[in-house]
Design brief:
CATH topology of the largest domain: f41 fragment of flagellin, N-terminal domain
Strand content: 15-25%
Structural class: alpha+beta
Shape: elongated
Helix content: 40-55%
CATH architecture of the largest domain: Up-down Bundle
Number of helices: 11
Strand order of the largest sheet: 5-22-8-9-10
Radius of gyration: 45 Å
Largest sheet: 5 strands, antiparallel
Length: 549
């Protein structure tokens, strides 16, 4: 077989290149300390290494989460311990304030000053922020201050009920925060009580403020519970002489106190609840009554063929029946026949005597009352401003009323509803926030004026304060136990993560770390092969027939 000169060079080049690549590969392994420099070196091992590195990276992140969670829980535990210490001091002050026989109003004001200081400290503790500036008791709303005062002794919670959680291992997540609502607001009260707040839609500037209030007649309030109360300010013109006034209703709309004259700061007592409103609430605008005037009257006899009309106000419909001969007058009665028949008498006793006590006229009167409208010679009137529709009559009812009653009938267009003024909400509850408990305790001491009645009222508040503080201590102690359990879980997870890391790193080392002794021996052999290839090429390339010519 003939071997050309070019073949000799090509074969030598390939051989030396392979030998050089092997030397370079081994040198790179020795430099990096890694057996596998690319997946091509060992595809199966490379896959395992990738999986192990991902697992170790996750475990490293888990440990970082645990460190952050541990710091947060430690801060929460320290804060709760400080809150507990303050509550213990407040209990001591409550017991001290119970010595009504020796304390003067000045003494009570002195104690109240310390209570107010404790209240300020409690507020700051409940608004604690971590190193990242996040409020630790605001739930998911960690950038929002959770506890805010309205200046009247009321505190509202602005956060939510969420719990921030972190992943501590592949299978374990741990809550690293607690909602301030569950810790400091949802505390069982020793008795049914209430929270007060202004409606967020109030218009007064500056806003009027409602006090924290208190229950002064537990029996009366328990009858109201669990219904709420709403204080709504009315237009000044609804009372005579015109002046600021309010109406109190319960959750169902039942009026508990109607059109009461308002004086800023004056106590309001309704259904056993006492509170006050300070400032100048927006009064609203009075309603413009809706009217359907009667037209030209035509005498009509309904005694043979009865007639009826439907009257609708605010979605409520009543059918008024006509079954009498309606002439111009009613034999000396102050009402004409039409108004009498439709129930238009303003005096209910008019329909309690014969011949009207069992007639359709008496029934019509009750239906008008149910609709909240009146009827007189001018026509139908709705004082609330709800528009009136008179329909579903006949030609005969058209004639007697002087208006269109057939089909869709006649609808008033002049009614304008009242625009209510500012509203304040008295929300019944069987829970009482810690800040509210302290605020009411302070207010009760400031109200002591030396009279036995004021001292008796304080004694009741002190009893409730001590019971509610005990409930708060129990609630927070339970939370602290829960925090401790979570800290233990984090410690356990950290230990497990360390074991996983150690095991993973051991396996990873076996897969990718270089055996330096084997690599050094291999490098020496590969260097020898490279040197031999180079020397062989020199010898072979020197063979030529031209030397013998």
């Amino acid at each position: 077989m003939r071997v050309s000169t070019s073949q000799i060079y090509n074969i030598a080049n390939i051989g030396m290149s392979d030998a050089q690549a092997a030397v370079d590969q081994t040198n790179a392994q020795i430099s990096s300390g890694k057996r596998i420099l690319s997946p091509a070196d060992d595809p199966v091992a490379a896959t395992s290494i990738l999986t192990l590195n991902q697992e170790l990276s996750r475990t490293t992140q888990y440990n970082a989460n645990i460190s952050s969670a541990t710091n947060n829980l430690s801060l929460e535990d320290t804060t709760l311990q400080s809150v507990t210490s303050l509550m213990q001091r407040l209990k001591e002050l409550a017991i001290q304030a119970g010595s009504s026989a020796v304390l003067t109003p000045a003494d009570y004001k002195s104690i109240a000053a310390e209570v107010d200081s404790s209240l300020s400290q409690l507020t700051n503790l409940q608004n604690t922020r971590n190193a990242s500036g996040q409020y630790i008791f605001a739930g998911f709303q960690s950038q929002t201050q959770p506890f805010v005062s309205d200046g009247g002794g009321n505190f509202s919670y602005q956060g939510d009920e969420g719990q921030l959680r972190v992943q501590a291992s592949t299978t374990v997540t741990v809550a690293v925060s607690d909602s301030g609502k569950s810790l400091f607001m949802d505390i069982p009260s020793s008795n049914n009580t209430f929270n007060t707040k202004a409606s967020p839609t109030n218009k007064a500037t500056p806003p009027a403020i409602i006090s924290v209030g208190d229950v002064v007649d537990q029996t009366a309030f328990d009858k109201l519970y669990p219904s709420n109360m709403i204080v709504t300010f009315n237009a000044n013109s609804v009372v005579n002489p015109p002046s600021p006034n309010y109406t109190v209703t319960d959750s169902s709309g039942k009026i508990l106190a109607d059109k009461q004259v308002y004086m800023s700061g004056q106590d309001i007592v309704v259904n056993g609840a006492k509170f006050s409103i300070t400032g100048s609430p927006y009064s609203g605008v009075a309603a413009t009554p809706a009217t359907v005037p009667l037209g030209t009257f035509t005498p009509t006899d309904f005694s043979t063929t009865n007639g009826s009309i439907d009257v609708t106000v605010g979605g409520v419909t009543e059918t008024l029946k006509l079954d009498q001969n309606i002439t111009t007058n009613s034999g000396g009665n102050s009402l004409n026949d039409l108004l009498t028949q439709l129930g238009g008498a303003t005096d209910p006793t008019f329909y309690s005597t014969p011949p009207y006590d069992t007639s359709s006229a008496a029934a019509n009167y009750k239906k008008l009352q149910n609709l909240g409208i009146t009827l007189n010679a001018s026509g139908f009137s709705s004082p609330t401003g709800l528009n009136i529709t008179v329909k579903n009559g006949t030609a005969a009812t058209d004639a007697v009323t002087g208006i269109t009653t057939q089909s869709t009938g006649t609808t008033s267009a002049n009614g304008v509803l009242a625009q209510p003024g500012d509203k304040f909400i008295i929300e019944s509850t069987n829970k009482q926030g810690l800040l509210t408990t302290v605020s009411r305790f302070s207010a009760a001491m400031k109200n002591v004026d030396g009279t036995q009645a004021s001292k008796d009222a304080l004694s009741k508040v002190i009893s409730q304060t001590l019971a509610n503080l005990d409930n708060a201590v129990s609630n927070i102690s339970s939370a602290q136990s829960n925090v401790g359990a979570r800290q233990n879980m984090l410690d356990s997870s950290k230990q497990i993560n360390s074991d996983v890391q150690l095991s993973g790193q051991k396996v990873l080392s076996q897969l990718q770390d270089l055996d330096y002794a084997e690599a050094a021996t291999r490098l020496q052999m590969q260097s020898f092969v490279l040197s031999a290839a180079q020397q062989s090429f020199v010898k072979i390339s020197d063979l030529s027939l031209f030397k013998y010519m």
